[in-house]
Write a structure and sequence with these properties.
By secondary structure, the chain is α/β, with parallel strands linked by helices. It has 13 helices and 15 strands. A hairpin with a 3-residue loop joins strand 14 and strand 15. The structure holds nicotinamide-adenine-dinucleotide (NAD). The site of nicotinamide-adenine-dinucleotide has 32 residues, from helix 1, strand 6 and helix 11.
Length: 394
């Protein structure tokens, strides 16, 4: 373990996967992040192409990794007064950005440059600087069925005699990629699938594999990717609100093959603001009568979410976050009657310049009502206005 000064901070650098906390050294169970880390991205749309372009821009020194916890965040060790807060990336054995290698699948044949240009999240000036790199990343044919994402129809799609065959084809893709890198992770950046609940075919690995063979309708494409990843010992992250790995069979497979699973929607936009505001209200024991969230967006994600069954998947995920934070069963006086309404409207003129409005009807001292409006525009520009009842001092 080496300790060095960095910008006035003491920085703890793990060596060979051993971590040191407050002078004690413990062998980490996590293997050191050596060599190339292959990132297999399912769905090369707005999120995926922004991530890949961003990583490359940072690697070339064109931009800073603003918003990245692993790259900019620190972790405090010991007491505040110890002044020992190394960067997370120096403390935890994480892959360096320069060691990330990207590949993936999509139902459209566009390379990452074309897909990023279509998504219109990043400006063309930025993308042009990265064009030679982005053009080289071309999506492999996807496992897709428009029954699960009704608004999309692409041609870059695998054919197979059943879902097990499709899973085998994905496993072959993973094995081929593994030969070119040292470790692999998979991340679902694909569209939101229709709303699904756990059912019999999801209850065990055996039932799931039988279901794959019979092409059971209860197994969605995202679950076929997750199955393929876990079978190959590859960790799987879910960036959509889909059911995907929240089923007994894939949890069992994850444990059996020691391949971690995580994620449930990226929660980077409106839900991020909710998960910040809700704890603040709760910390002050302020009650909430109603929370009305409305969104307009005109990108492909918006088009998919315009379909009622995909919208329901998103809605359930967004609804759950407030319920989880407020704990209405523990604070019935404050949150039992909360009316939570979510609207997502596809509005093509807006493109990726999403806009979200939240109206929050809260109540405070003596149950007097107060109202908050929260508006989020152009992805990250926020403003809010506060209205206090005239009967109470502000
Ligand atoms: N954009 C955001 O800020 C944001 C925030 C939180 C969550 N999300 C969620 O992340 C996911 C991706 O969002 P996005 O904005 O990048 O959407 P997007 O529509 O731009 O990209 C999704 C891509 O997935 C592809 N796809 C769909 N099914 C596939 C399959 N079975 N295999 C391979 N590719 C497939 C589509 O062709 C498309 O290119 C969505 O579920 C979205 O709800 C997005």
């Amino acid at each position: 373990m080496a300790t060095k000064k960095k910008g006035g901070r003491k920085s703890v650098v793990p060596v060979d996967g051993s971590w040191s906390v407050a002078g004690k050294t413990a062998a980490s169970k996590v293997a050191p992040a050596k060599g190339k880390l292959g990132v297999m991205v399912v769905g090369m749309g707005a999120v995926a192409t922004t991530m890949i372009s961003g990583v490359e821009a940072v690697r070339r020194g064109l931009a800073k990794p603003i918003g990245s916890l692993t790259q900019m965040g620190t972790i405090r060790l010991g007491k505040r007064t110890d002044n020992n807060s190394p960067l997370i990336k120096d403390f935890v054995p994480l892959a360096d950005l320069k060691d990330l290698v990207f590949t993936g699948w999509d139902i459209f044949e566009d390379n990452v440059y074309e897909a990023a240009s279509h998504a219109q999240v990043l400006k063309s000036e930025t993308l042009k600087q990265l064009k030679p790199f982005l053009q080289k990343i071309k999506p492999m044919p996807a496992v897709f069925d428009s029954y699960y994402v009704k608004r999309l129809h692409g041609t870059n799609v695998k054919k197979g005699k059943n879902k097990l065959d499709l899973a085998e084809q994905l496993r072959a893709d993973i094995r081929a990629f593994k030969k070119t890198v040292d470790r692999v992770v998979m991340i679902w950046c694909g569209s939101t699938e229709i709303f699904m609940k756990p059912q019999a075919v999801h209850q065990s690995i055996a039932a799931f594999e039988k279901g794959l063979e019979k092409s059971d309708i209860g197994i969605a494409p995202s679950q076929i990717y997750a199955y393929a990843a876990l079978k190959e010992g590859v960790p799987f992250v879910n960036g959509a609100p889909n059911l995907t790995v929240d089923i007994a069979a894939l949890v069992e497979l994850s444990k059996k093959n020691e391949a971690p699973i995580c994620g449930k929607d990226f929660k980077t936009g409106q839900t991020l603001m909710k998960t910040v505001l809700a704890p603040a209200l709760k910390a002050r024991m302020l009650g909430v009568h109603g929370w009305f969230s409305t969104n307009i967006l005109g990108n492909r994600d918006g088009e998919v979410l315009d379909e009622p069954m995909s919208f329901k998947t998103k809605e359930e995920s967004k609804l759950g976050s407030l319920e989880y934070i407020f704990q209405p069963e523990m604070y019935p006086d404050l949150y039992k009657d909360l009316y939570h309404k979510i609207r997502i409207n596809y509005y093509p003129p807006r493109g990726d310049e999403k806009e979200a409005w939240d109206n929050i009807d809260i109540f405070g001292w003596l149950g007097y009502p107060m109202t908050r409006f929260w508006r989020r525009r152009s992805r990250w520009i926020c403003c809010c206005s506060w209205t206090w009842p005239s009967a109470l001092p502000s």
